[in-house]
C-alpha cells in the first residue's frame, strides 16, 4: 500500500482513487478511513451522504498543499482553482499530522504505472507517530 509522506516521514497509508468511478465513490458508504485517500484530479469535494466529517488537503500538481478545510457531513467545498488533487482523511487528522498550506507531500510505494510523476522509494520511510 502507498504511503503519504512529508519531510521523509510517513503520515499515513494512502489509497489512490485512480479512476473516475473510484473518485466518484471516494469515501461514500464507509464509517471511517484508516489513513487517507487521494482524489486526482479534484478542485472540490463533497460529503453528501457521507457518515463522517473529513479534512481535505487541496494540493497542486506537485502535491504542495494550497488549502486545507474541514467539511462536516452533507457539505460541498468551494472550488480551489489552484488544486490538482485532494487528499481526504477523517476530520482532525491533518492537524494531528501537522499538515498545513505550503507543505510538500509525497506518495511513496506506488509502482511507476500508477504513480505518474510522484516520488518513489524502495525503502519504507520512517513512521511519524
Find the CATH topology. Jelly Rolls
Largest sheet, if any?
8 strands, mixed
| Distance linking N and C termini | 18 Å
User: What is the CATH superfamily classification?
Assistant: Protein of unknown function DUF192
Q: Low-confidence spans: pLDDT under 50, at least 5 residues?
A: 112-124
CATH architecture title: Sandwich
Mean pLDDT: 84
Could you describe the 3D structure shown?
The protein is mostly beta strands and 129 residues long. The protein has a single domain (3-110), classed as Jelly Rolls (Sandwich). Helix content is 12%, strand content 33%. The protein is built from three helices and eight strands; from the N terminus they run ββαββββαβαβ. The chain has helices at 20-25, 93-97, 112-115; strands spanning 3-6, 9-17, 36-39, 54-59, 65-71, 85-90, 105-108, 126-127. Strands 1, 2, 3, 4, 5, 6, 7 and 8 form an eight-stranded mixed beta sheet that branches. A hairpin with a 5-residue loop joins β4 (54-59) and β5. The protein is globular and about 35 Å long.
Question: Brief description of this entry?
Answer:
The protein has a single domain, classed as Jelly Rolls (Sandwich), CATH 2.60.120.1140. The chain is 12% helix and 33% strand. It has three helices and eight strands.
